Amino acid sequence: MTHTLDRLALAAGITLAVAFGGSTAAHAATYTTTHVRIVTNNETFYEDTVYISDEGCTVMDSAGTEYTITGDNALCALDSAATHGGFEYSLTYYDGFGFLLDSVSEFSGDGTNYWLYYVNFESPSVGMADFDLNENDELLLTFGGYNPPLRLTLDRTHRRTGEPVTAWVEYYSYDWVNAVGMYVPVDGATVSVDEEIFVTDAAGVATLTLEDSGTYEVYAVADGYTRTATQHIYGYRAFTALN
Fold first, then answer.
1. In the prediction, which pLDDT does 18 show?
2. Does residue 25 register a pLDDT over 60?
């Protein structure tokens, strides 16, 4: 039996769905480029770029029943990542209630650990199958408790030897009372640059002093938050003019 799901909500690892029957007119498929990152136990399990069709995808629950999901949405991005990344995920469908995302690979939900998703660091108010992605959106899935994702911003990624790099570490917070969202600085976040460690101040800022040339891997972590993606800083030796 095939269902068309137009609504899928994911909150504390549970996705809620309302099923509708229907069809769409034939058209040439278009594809949306999406960066997918999956973090488990604050380690990156999967990270890559996927291409999802606006024609949607077909997913299967743990009972072997197929469900057709329409649109270039977040759930189809996960399905595409699983196909290209060679990992499995499991869903359980509850009639009249929706889906439970049971597991991704060997990471299975329980009373303490569960799956959540974010798009561009924000937690959507609708479910994965109901959230259509735009070109170059970033989809993040996290496993554990509620640990908002950190955002790492660098003032430059290319620098001469000895020039400092300024890093900002923040997380996105939404004020439901005033209906306002904003990025909040994180005090005491650890910014790792290869083997060196820097710590942010109350403004969420750390100054990275890197003396050597070469390529550095940079990411940030903090207790109670999901780690950032890894970025790179490229260092070059300054040229001395010849007289």
1. 29
2. no
Residue (of 160, 212, 204, 164) closest to 184 by Cα position: 204
Angstrom distances, CA of residue 172 to CA of 29, 38, 78, 148, 215? 33, 18, 22, 8, 29
* pTM metric for this prediction: 0.82
Phi, psi of 83 (to 5 degrees): -65, -50
Judging by beta carbons within 10 Å of its beta carbon (0-12, 13-18, 19+), is residue 30 exposed, middle or buried?
A: exposed
> Quick one: which of 175, 153, 151, 167 has its CA closest to 210?
167
* Position 229 pLDDT exceeds 90: yes
Say how far apart CA 61 and CA 40 lie, in whole Å.
22
Does the pLDDT at position 84 exceed 80?
A: yes
Residues 85 and 87: their CA atoms lie apart, in Å, by 6
